[in-house]
């Protein structure tokens, strides 16, 4: 089995695993970073969303061999103490119900806001449409993002 | 004014209370006599080793930290916040010092550790209040002893005890050790509900920070040293069973520890209602890493044979009921034909008959007959089914997401041949439930695999295993025939069928409001397993009944809300029959509130508005939905009567979620079968509502009263379907009779 040196949450990690192992299972099985969730395994639900060089990607469908030296950020890397603005907005709007999809939602939202600090409602919907929330917290997710985009006061 | 209530009761009778789950309150309260019980959660953060037990629900540390044990499993209904709020309210605790902890399963310590039926708060209400009041009373008694003053002169507020005339005061923490030595009071005084300070406010989710930082809360996150990964392979079609598989080849694959077939239930065990029996024999693949096991699972090739029919007698709350799984590979096309045949056949069981239905139809001015159908639905919880199990000799520890431990414990004990007392069940947070996790066969499977490989395992279903494994919302069809005379509803006949259960609750509205009423039903057997899905039966019946009333109100030339209110007035003033299961006044109350909050009467004619109301699971709900000309849901106005609202913002969140879930399932929800094989196995084909289709605005209002609280998980959900159908009719001019509605709107969708 090949060995990979990865940059996960600003730490170097050396992993020996099959080349086709999805990043999701390296995170969960090898690194105990279980905040990134398994939902569908086919990049349809967004529960496994992480940042790859700042862009939101579905880790369930990203083979470890394709990660290379890219900087991977997981929900644990966003902040461990809920101090990241997106995490704070999620708490302020008490978004979660079951909470299972929310790490993925937060990773999609934080990638969006890093690239586009003031997204329109349409841009938010477009960016977040790949993340399923079975409990139906879409309204609060949108409001939380809008609060960071300065849209809430409107 | 306070209420005095006796705390000491005899042995609890869970099953009796469970059987009456729709109705009576459970007011008994179990004190945990055994101080060494297993209620202390193995906390991953915020350990509080100094905490002293006041009762099974409340512990207090000298630091002043108060631990509130949450007996019911959490699946997003937010009992981790609302239950501690009730405890803290009666205890007069400082909310800032309350730490919520999920209890483990412990039938000796807690009542009804069951998440389902929208009953968590409703049925725990008195137990929680008594536990909180009792803890407060123990702290007061300790202070009274120490200060040598009468207990009645001591007041409490925000975790502080005060004796006004002497000026003495103490924090709860300082009195903790003394209080914990006292015995449980025999009687406690409960607060006047009008004096609640915490209840009725909005408190943030006590687990919120752990959720947004990705802490290991869920079943799939649970593991111990040396835990192996386990997966199952079930037959591709309902009605099949395993004949053979290339297990020897699988066992040789990288990282695979074992591969074998196993029985999921003990052959001579009498199943209960919650024991699934779709696939009594499965393949298990056990390995070191998830990806290795997933690859082995893909490499498995198996032969499947037709499973014989199964005729069994199952247990349900002390009664016995026959259950029949026919042989064969079923398809949705034949299901539809079977249901039509039943509805047209006339050979149905009459569940209720008032007046003379045939004479009323014969003499009516107008008769309307409509048939409504809805498909099977998959629950599709975001966290697939999974469980951790460690069977070591005769000692069993299982941990994971489940709604109803009481229903699985006996099944597990029988399957493992290990006494029930040796089984420890730990609850993790559930990544959604919606009824699916009341059927926790996956727990038994995990434990059986652990027992076979003699190691702790974590069983994980893939999304495909989860979506194709059964326990669907049944498919239903109902025919409703109504008659108008002088624009009044004078006859209503409802005939219902479904696979494998029918959908009729005969004493529901409009029973009681119509002189001539008949309800009849007949179910059709199937080997496709089904189970409770958010508001069972109601989630379909609301759509049929409230779509029909909308259409017949239009024929009568009446406003949709006025027409319903007139029927409810009749049910209140001069009800037909005696067994009507709803309170017409509270029912009317939510309709009036929705009318007001939506501005129904003042909306321009061009606005595509639809209304529906429903009563189920002890709470009343009305929904007004407005769709735009592109058929997108623009605004929703929800009006709820669930009695006292414990945690307001969280309650609003739950109603918003039910609205979005309702819109999603009404538009897109559908599982079909071809020769026993589910036609959809993942989210690429099973369409889920996404942010794009979610309503742009949802406004939630509550009827304000001091009725003891009832639930919110299910009641807002059913009326969303018909309110949407009625609004879409306004927009398109076409009535919708078949779900999912999006198929009717845009055939290409």
UniProtKB/TrEMBL annotation, chain A:
Top-level taxon: Bacteria
Biological source species: Halioxenophilus aromaticivorans
The keyword Oxidoreductase belongs to this UniProt entry's keyword annotation: yes
Pfam families the UniProt entry points to: Fer2, Fer2_2
InterPro entries xrefs: 2Fe-2S-bd (IPR002888), 2Fe-2S-bd_dom_sf (IPR036884), 2Fe-2S_ferredoxin-like_sf (IPR036010), 2Fe-2S_ferredoxin-type (IPR001041), 2Fe2S_fd_BS (IPR006058), Beta-grasp_dom_sf (IPR012675), Diverse_Oxidoreductases (IPR051452)
Keywords recorded for this protein, A-Z: 2Fe-2S, Iron, Iron-sulfur, Metal-binding, Oxidoreductase, Ubiquinone
SUPFAM superfamilies the record matches: 2Fe-2S ferredoxin-like, CO dehydrogenase ISP C-domain like
Single GO molecular function: oxidoreductase activity
Location of the 2Fe-2S ferredoxin-type domain: 2-78
Protein name: (2Fe-2S)-binding protein
Gene3D superfamilies associated with the record: 3.10.20.30, [2Fe-2S]-binding domain
Lineage: Bacteria, Pseudomonadati, Pseudomonadota, Gammaproteobacteria, Alteromonadales
Keyword presence, Metal-binding: yes
